[in-house]
Protein backbone atom coordinates (compact mmCIF):
# COMPACT_ATOMS: atom_id res chain seq x y z
CA UNK A 1 0.00 0.00 0.00
CA UNK A 2 1.79 3.16 -1.14
CA UNK A 3 -0.35 5.40 1.09
CA UNK A 4 1.43 4.10 4.17
CA UNK A 5 4.86 4.99 2.80
CA UNK A 6 5.61 8.49 4.17
CA UNK A 7 8.90 8.75 2.34
CA UNK A 8 8.06 11.13 -0.57
CA UNK A 9 5.04 12.87 0.97
CA UNK A 10 6.65 13.80 4.26
CA UNK A 11 9.55 15.47 2.44
CA UNK A 12 7.16 17.39 0.18
CA UNK A 13 5.08 18.56 3.15
CA UNK A 14 8.15 19.55 5.15
CA UNK A 15 9.65 21.44 2.21
CA UNK A 16 6.43 23.30 1.47
CA UNK A 17 5.95 24.35 5.12
CA UNK A 18 9.54 25.48 5.44
CA UNK A 19 9.19 27.47 2.22
CA UNK A 20 6.00 29.06 3.48
CA UNK A 21 7.29 29.90 6.94
CA UNK A 22 10.75 31.11 5.93
CA UNK A 23 10.17 32.77 2.56
CA UNK A 24 6.55 33.61 1.85
CA UNK A 25 5.26 34.52 5.31
CA UNK A 26 7.84 37.31 6.03
CA UNK A 27 7.12 38.83 2.61
CA UNK A 28 3.38 38.85 3.31
CA UNK A 29 3.87 40.25 6.80
CA UNK A 30 5.93 43.17 5.48
CA UNK A 31 3.01 44.67 3.55
CA UNK A 32 1.48 47.76 5.11
CA UNK A 33 -2.23 47.65 5.67
CA UNK A 34 -4.08 50.18 3.47
CA UNK A 35 -6.45 50.92 6.33
CA UNK A 36 -4.46 51.07 9.57
CA UNK A 37 -6.45 50.94 12.80
CA UNK A 38 -6.96 54.22 14.57
CA UNK A 39 -6.69 54.94 18.28
CA UNK A 40 -9.77 57.15 18.29
CA UNK A 41 -12.86 55.95 20.04
CA UNK A 42 -15.83 55.71 17.69
CA UNK A 43 -18.17 58.65 17.89
CA UNK A 44 -21.77 57.77 18.65
CA UNK A 45 -24.12 59.90 16.56
CA UNK A 46 -26.80 61.81 18.41
CA UNK A 47 -30.02 60.49 16.94
CA UNK A 48 -33.60 61.37 17.65
CA UNK A 49 -36.31 58.72 17.71
CA UNK A 50 -38.55 58.44 14.73
CA UNK A 51 -42.03 59.82 15.22
CA UNK A 52 -44.50 57.46 13.63
CA UNK A 53 -47.62 59.18 12.27
CA UNK A 54 -50.00 56.38 13.33
CA UNK A 55 -49.06 56.29 17.02
TrEMBL record:
<keyword id="KW-0138">CF(0)</keyword>
<protein>
    <recommendedName>
        <fullName>ATP synthase complex subunit 8</fullName>
    </recommendedName>
</protein>
<keyword id="KW-0375">Hydrogen ion transport</keyword>
<feature type="region of interest" description="Disordered">
    <location>
        <begin position="34"/>
        <end position="55"/>
    </location>
</feature>
<keyword id="KW-1133">Transmembrane helix</keyword>
<dbReference type="GO" id="GO:0031966">
    <property type="term" value="C:mitochondrial membrane"/>
</dbReference>
<dbReference type="GO" id="GO:0015986">
    <property type="term" value="P:proton motive force-driven ATP synthesis"/>
</dbReference>
<keyword id="KW-0812">Transmembrane</keyword>
<dbReference type="InterPro" id="IPR050635">
    <property type="entry name" value="ATPase_protein_8"/>
</dbReference>
<keyword id="KW-0496">Mitochondrion</keyword>
<feature type="compositionally biased region" description="Low complexity">
    <location>
        <begin position="40"/>
        <end position="55"/>
    </location>
</feature>
<dbReference type="GO" id="GO:0015078">
    <property type="term" value="F:proton transmembrane transporter activity"/>
</dbReference>
<feature type="transmembrane region" description="Helical">
    <location>
        <begin position="6"/>
        <end position="24"/>
    </location>
</feature>
<dbReference type="GO" id="GO:0045259">
    <property type="term" value="C:proton-transporting ATP synthase complex"/>
</dbReference>
<keyword id="KW-0813">Transport</keyword>
<dbReference type="Pfam" id="PF00895">
    <property type="entry name" value="ATP-synt_8"/>
</dbReference>
<comment type="similarity">
    <text>Belongs to the ATPase protein 8 family.</text>
</comment>
<keyword id="KW-0406">Ion transport</keyword>
<keyword id="KW-0472">Membrane</keyword>
<keyword id="KW-0066">ATP synthesis</keyword>
<dbReference type="InterPro" id="IPR001421">
    <property type="entry name" value="ATP8_metazoa"/>
</dbReference>
